[in-house]
Specification:
Number of strands: 12
Distance between the termini: 57 Å
Pfam families: Methyltransf_16
Radius of gyration: 19 Å
Number of domains: 1
Largest sheet: 8 strands, mixed
Shape: globular
Structural class: alpha/beta
InterPro entries: Methyltransf_16, SAM-dependent_MTases_sf
Strand order of the largest sheet: 5-6-4-3-7-9-11-10
Strand content: 15-25%
Order of helices and strands: EEHHHEHEHEEEHEHEHEEE
CATH superfamily: Vaccinia Virus protein VP39
Number of helices: 8
Low-confidence stretches: 1-41, 63-85, 332-338
Helix content: 10-25%
Length: 338
Amino acid sequence: MARTKQPRAARPAPENRSNDTEPAAAPLSTSPSPATAPAPHDANLHAYRVGPVTLTVAGIAEDSDDDTFDPCFFDEGYSLAAQTAYSVWEGGARLLDFVQRDGDAPGAAIAADLRALLGVDQPGNPVQVVELGSGTGAAGLGLAMLGANVLVTDVPSIVDLLRDNIKRNSSASAVEEKAVSAWTGATSLGLGTAAAQPLNWAIPVAQQLAPNDPRRAQVLVATECTWLQSLIPIFTSTVSQLLAAPMPAKLVPVRGWTVAALHQIAQSQQKWLLWVYKERGTAASESFTTFDGVCRAFAEVGCTVHALHAEPSVEDPGKTIRFCAVTLAGGASQIERN
């Protein structure tokens, strides 16, 4: 039977406190300068500053010839969760804004700790990062531009979009040979590197090790991908599998630490997840999560959530964006040494 193009579903609307409605996909909260903003006809592009340069990501794969049609509509496993990957959610943009703060900016001292653990303050000693549920890749690619070696991941139907966005921001076709800690197939991106591959939370990580083994990550990143109740069991399971895997030994940054939990992570060389969460549900929600509910789910798989910083949402007044570190409870990851 011939395929008939279907219109893309409208973006979810903000949750009404008295109704279990779908959450809104927030636009980027950091505005690009007029000189670098996308032209009006580039409605699917989002741009913002990362250091001295501009990161631009598209919200739809380049091979689609219809802006109203989701090119993955007919893919096996298509779902609402996958459809929202085409939006840039507020948490991703706020993470990039937060990690670049300095001086007297709110949370600047915590941001400096995060930069040290992400390796962006250590030229020549980049950290291997895996972003979970990357969507457009805005957060992960921004961290790469700041100096990390990032593997952006999502379900297979989204990976072409991620690769398009890597190519859109790349200054080279491949990383230099000296970048030995880069992921296989990575491309130079700003001060770091980026590669993309599928990682489906519903499948054991051990069955998804090619071309890169995501278990070799030193840091995991996830921004606003824990909003739907049905995703939480497979998400927390994936996180616990990745945190439990041995990790390569690394240099410990020598510095004064602001956050005790981050100091402990550094000293123990423990794997950890940088988790950004905006609460969209209520205690009565059946579809959408609450912060306490996700924390309980992490505890059930042996993980501890460490609150780092919280600030008001720009896109949804009255709601809060939380920055957290998640570690395995009771000890450090096994260290793999040569």
